[in-house]
């Protein structure tokens, strides 16, 4: 068997194992919280008898392990359970929310990833000169300011003063793609500013590291100009670390957008999760947790696989 | 006389240095060197490290490595002073008119790109050839340089070919754009001696067939004697002597050149084996974890007290692995290490402090074998504390004694490794191992990273210390000249097996086995025409078989 197939299948198996572990951890932690779904539903009206009745009705009196296996089995069949608070099927509500979050993340990634890599390349090309310093200063400033603050500042200047975009990022199915894009413009800008610095700095560091190699000197002695040296000879060898940090930031775009979604009242996963955490809607919290874990593990697995594929020694064994 | 291709006048090159504890400052490393190179001729630049030979070679491409800057003088290539042209013109010169072959092709090829893409890149970039023409030319060069499967080898990645093959690919890379001048910077130094001979011949024939001029940089006078028309001897950034190859080799005028030519002047009388060996390696078979083949097969050698056993072989022959087994770093699969009459535990963890003390080691890279933040006194004092519990004045006295023994003296006690030269660092490492009063020292390529004259000094020191301290050496090396100089007995290793073993006089006398014959005949000799003689001899032999 080609060693790369072996390595990649190992990564995938490891990812699945990790996801399984994460699901157990999430389930275990919600179990460990004081109170349960029955208490949350009954609230002030809870008496010992009504609690016991409701628990039996909801199957909460059975052992945790049995419920975990059932829950896991449901997830594997696409059944995420029913929300306690609004009695809706979670898979259906999550589906729409997740679509919205991914829509937002997609556009933020589409702008930020190429921009970060381009800025990283520029910073290397003009290393220690003013373009490099300017790029570093600006990106580090934007990452240092809390995202809700950037969000409100943008809302104030761009939406309120200039009136270019709507301050609220409400989208729905009846909107055209252009209306949607206009609506999410501000959150996309905020997210881009937040994730840009990491990726740009890592691109810069990874390429600078490669620039020390003897083969860069060879390229220089071939009379190539700096851009060709960076693009042709340094970048291909810096892919693995860059992909790693890109994937971490993509994961953040999906999983960590809670604050931005709340600021712009965007109907995504973050808002959905926050709403239901306050209502102690355990099945929803569980479902969101597993989805976030799956996205995180999945993206990191992709990063690992790309790093394996980018290594010519593994791709073309002797 | 036609116009020279390369005309260097009063070339001065500077660099910024960062000495520990001082402010960075600029120093001059080449002090006004002048020479001419005619088209189609080969000039050898020879000298020890720090002589400025690579720096001068790269200056012919208007390039300074790291913080190196060309500070004065003129470098004329094809009738124009390249130090006064724009960066754009310099880029057109590099990779077009002047190309470069580095010491380590393995590092100089981009691991992520196919060999062919890299070989033709300069020719295409400089618009010398179309991509198609350049590829055809590359395949021609691959064939000329004796690479296997020249039509397809370009499709491979650098890690898929051997070191010697990659060095030839690098030569093809340099010759592909049809340059006027190629700078060869120690192109065979990193290769095994048996590989070197083939690469050397390939380079020589390629130079002859393409009519290209070359600067051939090396520290090995015997090598440069085989390929160059003229030789320039450099020392500390100054030209010592310039002359035809014949004159420099056979009739050197300057004292320094004479020293370079006559290096390896050590005469060592072979000692007789004693009845009780200090080290007896008995039937050692070993493999590394995760490998499914043995790297040592049934190795049996003895080392006698106060004597030197040289273990010689090419890279991959298992000689360093043998050292790892003896020191306990790699427990063997089979066999015993008997040391001073007792069988040692196969693993390091099972050995007593006395075992550790009596068996010391000196490494190839002296500078990474020492803690850069400790002074020489601390480094040498550590084994004194550890093994003998010495403190204060007693320890200090012993350190000074050891410093005297290695011919450095008390004034070195408070210096840091960074303030020492390569040879001095290796001397400190020797003192550190002697401090433990060992019965035996494993010397792993201890002179390979040093210049010939410095290496000579280290070998002499080791022999003197052997007489005083009565210590035995297991001397691991790939250099047969070193073996001749210091050993009492020799073990020749090839692919994990000892193929020849015995007293020096016997191992180095005919009749030879095939491998020892190949190894011995591959060591460059310092006379003109040696390369052709060996190659012709080998061709005759293979025709005879």
From TrEMBL, chain A:
Highest taxon listed in the record's lineage: Bacteria
PROSITE patterns named in the record: ABC_TM1
Alphabetical list of Pfam families matching this protein: BPD_transp_1, BPD_transp_1_N
Membrane spanning residue stretches: 102-122, 134-157, 177-197, 238-264, 284-310
Major place of residence: membrane
InterPro entries per UniProt: BPD_transp_1_N, MetI-like, MetI-like_sf
Family listed: Belongs to the binding-protein-dependent transport system permease family.
Membrane topology, record value: Multi-pass membrane protein
Position of the signal peptide: none
Protein name: ABC transporter permease
UniProt keyword terms in alphabetical order: Cell membrane, Membrane, Transmembrane, Transmembrane helix, Transport
Domain ABC transmembrane type-1: 98-303
Subcellular localization: Cell membrane
Family matches, as CDD domains: TM_PBP2
TrEMBL record, chain B:
Pfam families: ABC_tran (PF00005), oligo_HPY (PF08352)
Location within or outside the cell: Cell inner membrane
Membrane topology value: Peripheral membrane protein
Keywords per UniProt: ATP-binding, Nucleotide-binding, Transport
Source organism superkingdom: Bacteria
GO molecular function, one term: ATP binding
Main location: membrane
UniProt keyword Nucleotide-binding present: yes
Family per similarity comment: Belongs to the ABC transporter superfamily.
Domain ABC transporter: residue ranges: 6-261, 279-520
InterPro entries: AAA+_ATPase (IPR003593), ABC_transp_ATP-bind (IPR050319), ABC_transporter-like_ATP-bd (IPR003439), ABC_transporter-like_CS (IPR017871), Oligopep_ABC_C (IPR013563), P-loop_NTPase (IPR027417)
UniProt name for this protein: ABC transporter ATP-binding protein
Lineage, top ranks: Bacteria, Pseudomonadati, Pseudomonadota, Alphaproteobacteria, Rhodobacterales
């Amino acid at each position: 068997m080609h060693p790369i197939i072996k390595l990649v299948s190992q990564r995938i198996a490891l990812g699945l194992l990790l996801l399984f572990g994460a699901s157990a951890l999430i389930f275990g932690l919600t179990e460990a919280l004081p109170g349960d779904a029955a208490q949350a539903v009954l609230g002030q009206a809870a008496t010992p008898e009504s609690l016991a009745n409701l628990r039996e009705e909801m199957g909460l009196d059975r052992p945790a392990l049995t419920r975990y296996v059932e829950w896991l089995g449901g997830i594997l069949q696409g059944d995420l359970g029913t929300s306690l608070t609004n009695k809706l099927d979670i898979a259906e509500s999550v589906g729409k929310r997740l679509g919205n979050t991914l829509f937002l993340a997609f556009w933020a990634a589409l702008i930020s990833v190429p921009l970060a890599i381009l800025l990283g390349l520029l910073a290397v090309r003009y290393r220690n000169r003013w373009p490099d310093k300017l790029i570093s200063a600006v990106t580090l400033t934007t990452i240092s300011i809390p995202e809700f603050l950037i969000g409100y500042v943008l809302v104030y200047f761009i939406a309120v003063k200039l009136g270019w975009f709507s301050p609220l990022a409400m989208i729905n199915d009846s909107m055209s793609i252009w209306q949607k894009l206009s609506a999410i413009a501000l959150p996309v800008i905020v997210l881009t500013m937040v994730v840009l610095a990491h990726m740009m700095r890592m691109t810069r560091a990874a390429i600078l590291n490669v620039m020390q190699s003897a083969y860069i000197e060879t390229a220089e002695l071939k009379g190539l100009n700096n851009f060709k040296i960076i693009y042709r000879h340094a970048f291909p060898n810096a892919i693995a670390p860059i992909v790693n940090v890109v994937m971490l930031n993509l994961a953040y775009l999906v999983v960590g957008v809670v604050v931005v979604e709340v600021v712009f009242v965007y109907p995504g996963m973050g808002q959905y999760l926050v709403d239901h955490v306050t209502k102690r809607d355990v099945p929803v919290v569980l479902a969101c947790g597993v989805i976030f874990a799956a996205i995180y593990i999945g993206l990191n697995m992709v990063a690992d696989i790309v790093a394996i594929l980018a290594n010519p020694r593994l791709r073309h064994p002797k | 006389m036609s116009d020279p291709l390369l005309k260097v006048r009063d070339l001065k090159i500077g660099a910024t240095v960062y000495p520990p504890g001082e402010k960075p400052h600029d120093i001059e490393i080449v002090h006004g060197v002048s020479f001419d190179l005619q088209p189609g001729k080969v000039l050898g630049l020879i000298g020890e490290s720090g002589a400025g030979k690579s720096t001068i070679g790269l200056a012919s491409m208007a390039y300074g490595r790291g913080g190196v800057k060309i500070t004065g003088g003129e470098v004329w290539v094809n009738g124009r002073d390249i130090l006064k042209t724009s960066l754009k013109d310099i880029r057109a010169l590099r990779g077009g008119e002047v190309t470069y072959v580095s010491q380590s092709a393995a590092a100089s090829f981009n691991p992520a790109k196919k060999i062919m893409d890299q070989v033709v890149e300069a020719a295409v970039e400089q618009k010398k050839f179309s991509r198609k023409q350049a590829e055809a030319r590359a395949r021609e060069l691959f064939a000329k340089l004796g690479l296997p499967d020249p039509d397809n080898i370009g499709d491979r990645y650098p890690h898929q070919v051997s070191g010697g093959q990659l060095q030839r690919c690098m030569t093809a890379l340099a010759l592909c754009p049809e340059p006027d001048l190629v700078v060869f910077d120690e192109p065979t130094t990193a290769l095994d001696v048996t590989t070197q001979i083939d690469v050397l011949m390939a380079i020589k024939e390629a130079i002859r067939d393409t009519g290209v001029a070359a600067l051939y940089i090396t520290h090995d006078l015997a090598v440069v004697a085989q390929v160059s028309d003229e030789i320039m001897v450099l020392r500390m950034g100054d030209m010592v002597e310039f002359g035809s190859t014949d004159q420099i080799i056979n009739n050197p005028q300057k004292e320094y050149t004479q020293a370079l030519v006559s290096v390896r002047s050590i005469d060592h009388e072979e000692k007789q084996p004693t009845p009780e060996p200090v080290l007896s390696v008995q039937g050692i078979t070993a493999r590394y974890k995760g490998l499914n083949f043995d790297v040592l097969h049934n190795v049996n050698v003895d080392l006698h007290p106060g004597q030197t056993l040289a273990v010689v072989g090419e890279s991959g022959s298992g000689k360093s692995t043998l050292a790892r087994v003896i020191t306990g770093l790699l427990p063997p699969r089979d066999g015993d290490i008997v040391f001073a009459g007792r069988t040692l535990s196969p693993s390091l963890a099972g050995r007593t402090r006395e075992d550790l003390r009596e068996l010391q080691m000196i490494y190839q890279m002296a500078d990474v074998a020492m803690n850069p933040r400790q002074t020489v006194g601390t480094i040498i004092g550590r084994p004194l504390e550890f093994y003998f519990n010495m403190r204060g004045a007693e320890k200090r006295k012993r350190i000074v004694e050891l410093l005297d023994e290695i011919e450095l003296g008390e004034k070195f006690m408070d210096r840091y490794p960074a303030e020492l030269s390569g040879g001095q660092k290796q001397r400190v490492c020797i003192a550190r191992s002697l401090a433990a009063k060992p019965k035996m020292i494993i010397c792993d390529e201890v002179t390979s990273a040093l210049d010939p004259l410095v290496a000579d000094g280290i070998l002499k020191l080791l022999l003197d210390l052997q007489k005083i301290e009565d210590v035995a050496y297991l001397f691991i090396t790939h250099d047969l000249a070193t073996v001749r100089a210091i050993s009492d007995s020799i073990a020749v290793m090839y692919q994990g097996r000892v193929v020849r073993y015995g007293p020096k006089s016997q191992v180095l006398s005919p009749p030879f086995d095939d491998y020892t014959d190949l190894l011995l005949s591959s060591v460059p000799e310092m006379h003109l025409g040696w390369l052709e003689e060996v190659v012709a001899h080998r061709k005759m032999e293979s025709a005879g078989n």
